[in-house]
Amino acid sequence: MTARIALPGPAPALLVPAPEWDLSYPPPRRRSAYAAAHVAAFPDGSIDWAATMAFREHLWRHGFGLAEAMDTAQRGMGLTFAQAGELITRSAARAAELGAVIASGAGTDQLAPGPHPLPDIVAAYAEQIDLVQSARSQVILMASRALAASARSAADYQEVYGRVLTLADQPVLLHWLGEAFDPALAGYWGSAEFGAAADTVVDLIERADGKVAGVKLSVLDAGSEIALRRRLPEGVRLYTGDDYNYAELIRGDGQGHSDALLGAFAAVTAPAAAALHALDAGDLAGYDAAIGPTVPLSRLIFEPPAYDYKVGVAFLAWLNGLQAHFAMIGGLQDRRSAGHLTRVFELAARARALRDPELAVSRMTTWLAGTGAGAGARAGAGAAGAGE
After folding, report:
1. 30-289: CATH topology
2. Average pLDDT, whole number, for the chain?
3. CA–CA separation, 179 and 184 (whole Å)
4. What count of other Cβ atoms lies within 10 Å of the Cβ of residue 330?
5. Each residue's pLDDT tens digit, 354-387
6. I want to staple 104 with a disulfide (CB 3.0 to 4.6 A). Which of 88, 142, 282, 346 is the partner?
7. β-strand 237-240 against 33-36: which pairing, if any?
């Protein structure tokens, strides 16, 4: 059933359509696709473990692999190393029970902020790799703030990663997170110029003796991603982390495509899963129809400062009934304005990313009243086809 809501402002009532997606999808065959999951919280900021784990099962039901304990889970923005360890252990155990796919972030965030000797950075990576591998999860080697603060050249990155890769018991994913997502990572790989940084990454992979399965790239520049993708050795995947341009990058061109590891897929799970299912069937029109409307929503969620995108992910999880409270660890939910989140709701409705229109409208109406932004907002059920 559809529902209507009168949002603040002069616009007519907004129709929230029934999503009409399947309740589950098989893992895609033509693309490798991971969704990076957030952490649900209680109003006091403590982790709601039941909702956090249920959200991961929601992603698995829709065919996605789980990218665990990444920046979407507020790694480095409220999630402690101890909490990350518990999160990885819990999720990997559940993945094993379900036969689901999981890869987890191993970084250096147990180190204090600031520079460190390179051997200490290697040791920090080693501790976290052991944690992830002991949980029987694939490793994602996260970009390291400590290394960014300590390295003086591309050779320092080669030295640290070269030593760390020897510790992996199976091929890993490299995590290249751009400055827009974390200003502390400016100049990663030893250069502020993308081409020079890419030279370092490609050289590292070629020396890695098969220890790198793919690169997760988040620089919000489709041209740069395509250029790197075409340089990767055969068999090494490029996982797009471009939450602005993922639709075209996953669709691909005559010379290849990107796979996906996206925080956006935690926000637009059902339409993204439907799009990948259509792509498996060779239905490019169906892919475009499902994924296209999600792109404006994702661009809004990830608008500057991009690192606050986790707020939009948690907000949609709450609207969709996947957690009981719109709350985040560290009170991060307050970092986006009521106006921003109202626009998120509007675009989520247009993308058919709200799985229960009546619930979403009810929660949005209550939330608007609580913010003081929704004076006069009203909700109601509507027949399909009702105008906006």
Report:
1. TIM Barrel (3.20.20)
2. 95
3. 7
4. 13
5. 999 999 999 999 999 998 665 445 555 443 322 2
6. 88
7. unpaired
Give yes or no for a contact between 236 and 215, defined as CB atoms under 8 angstroms apart: yes
Residue range 317-358, pLDDT digits in tens: 999 999 999 999 999 999 999 999 999 999 999 999 999 999
228 strand-pairing partners: none
Cis peptide before 293 (omega within 30 of 0): no
Six-digit token string for 172:
């890993």
How far apart, in whole angstroms, are the C-alpha atoms of residue 267 and residue 297? 9
First to last CA, the chain: 15
Give the number of other CB atoms < 10 A from CB of residue 186.
11
